Amino acid sequence: MIIEKDPMGRAIADYHHSGEAARLRVFSPMFDEDEIPVETLFRRLEDMPAVEREALLVASGAILDVGAGAGCHAQALQAMEKRVTAIDISPLAVATMRERGVKDVREQDFFTLDGRFDTILMLMNGIGIVGTLARMDAFFMQVDHLLAPGGQLLCDSSDICYVFEDEDGIIDLTGIDGYYGELTYQMQYRDIKGEPFPWLFIDPETLREQAAAHGYHCDILVRGPHYDYLARLTRNT
């Protein structure tokens, strides 16, 4: 990723160096303009939601932190004296993590990574990088490549069906083309506007079906208060 097209990376770097940042704006054709509070990317363990805290507690062995951002999860794991490799496609995020003391950091795309890990960690809806259900084949192929025998993948996501709920509590997906959790986003920070990218929110039942179809078992470890959940995927024996 080039710095000129990296709004999140620039926001992370600004906050790290000055303790403040401008609005990190998020656009999607399906929703009104939103924003990501940059300070949440720097939160401490005690400030994280239950799904993230549980994931960090059960992560073990050689851990891969995918889409590590500012490195808050990697730092928490290091404080627990766990071994973690943090990856991100943003050069500014990677530089920030190094400055913040994350020991093993790589500027790396998950889908082209080599290595062997006991735990693959994809938090803050990290599995969203898959983009669409059609890419699940490629995703599980890479998980097969990276996951050590007996290993686990820990990911959180949200079932966004509530967005389509009418005033009577009925989910109406009329007019939705494809799976309702497949979105397109674009981010902007100051005058830096990134390229549009696909992002996947996957409900737990669909994740279970996809896991089973690719030889994995899916356990839901934690359910959060806002349709969010933490899942653990392990190979079928």
Outline the fold blueprint:
Elements: H1 7-18, E1 24-28, E2 31-36, H2 50-58, E3 62-66, H3 72-79, E4 83-88, H4 91-99, E5 105-107, E6 117-122, H5 136-146, E7 147-158, E8 182-189, E9 192-193, E10 197-200, H6 204-213, E11 216-223, E12 228-235
Parallel strand pairs: 3-4, 3-6, 4-5, 6-7
Antiparallel strand pairs: 1-2, 1-8, 7-12, 8-9, 8-10, 11-12
Helix pairs in contact: 1-4
Folded structure, characterized:
Helix content is 25%, strand content 31%. The chain is α/β, with parallel strands linked by helices and 237 residues long. The strands form 2 sheets. It has a 7-stranded mixed beta sheet, sandwiched between helices. Strands 1, 2, 8, 9 and 10 form a 5-stranded antiparallel beta sheet that branches. The protein contains 6 helices and 12 strands. Helix 1 (7-18) runs parallel beside helix 4 (91-99).
Summarize the structure.
The protein has 237 residues and is an alpha/beta fold. It contains six helices and twelve strands.
Mean pLDDT: 95
The Rg value, from CA coordinates, equals 17 Å
Low-confidence stretches: none
Number of DSSP helical runs: 6
Number-wise, the strands total 12
Terminal-residue CA separation:
38 Å
What is the N-to-C order of secondary-structure elements (H for helix, E for strand)? HEEHEHEHEEHEEEEHEE
**What percent of the residues sit in helical stretches (DSSP H or I)?**
10-25%
Largest sheet: 7 strands, mixed
**What amount of the residues lies in strands?**
25-35%
Placed side by side, the strands forming the largest sheet appear as 5-4-3-6-7-12-11
Looking at the structure, what is the overall shape?
A: globular
Content-based structural category: alpha/beta
